[in-house]
Design goal:
Helix content is 71%, strand content 0%. By secondary structure, it is an all-alpha fold. The protein starts with a helix and ends in a 21-residue tail after the last helix.
Length: 159
């Protein structure tokens, strides 16, 4: 009885995650590569902050989840706070990492994580320009070093 109920709850959670990442990927597919470049710059900056503050390497999402299984929940809460405060740029950058981590949790989500990084790679050629323009407008310098690194396990064309 409890096993059946647990499986139903897990199946529903996975279905929600697949829908959310699919919707996110659809939105990315509608964006120009220069627009995606800004999102990649922001996500890279966030990745460096996670590494510095928490010692979590988001480029190794499986390891990050082993270190802290509640990381997706914490990131989701942060996204909601950013959205509530009208900070959509940071929210979008955090969504990339939420979907990345979720992609490593359940195999049904993994192909969507690969598609996410395939879409994000379209923005790689525009990251430097986007980050520098952001700094000119906002006065905030983004750390976009290593922006073209794709998290382990989510390479668009695995070998």
């Amino acid at each position: 009885m409890f096993g059946f109920l647990k499986k139903k709850i897990l199946d529903k959670a996975v279905a929600i995650q697949v829908k959310e990442i699919s919707d996110f990927n659809l939105n990315l597919s509608r964006m120009n590569s220069d627009e995606i470049g800004m999102g990649v710059a922001q996500a890279t900056h966030i990745r460096h902050n996670f590494q510095e503050r928490l010692g979590v390497n988001l480029l190794e999402p499986s390891v990050a989840l082993l270190q802290d299984a509640s990381l997706p929940l914490a990131i989701n809460k942060t996204i909601q706070e950013f959205q509530k405060n009208g900070n959509m740029t940071d929210a979008a950058g955090m969504m990339i990492w939420l979907h990345t981590l979720r992609s490593m949790g359940e195999f049904e989500v993994r192909p969507h994580g690969r598609e996410l990084w395939k879409q994000l790679a379209r923005g790689f050629p525009h990251v430097t320009e986007s980050a520098l323009n952001f700094e000119m407008v906002s006065g905030v310098a983004l750390n976009f070093e290593g922006y073209n690194e794709i998290p382990q396990g989510l390479e668009p064309n695995p070998t």
